Amino acid sequence: MELLIYFLIPLGLTIVIESIIALLLGIRSLRDIIVIILAQILTNPAVNYGAIIVHRSLNATYYGLYLFIVETLVLLVESFVYKKCLNTRKISPFRLSAICNLSSFGIGVIWGLLG
Question: Which of 13, 21, 28, 83 could hold 93 in an S-S bridge, CB 3.0 to 4.6 Å?
Answer without folding.
Answer: 83
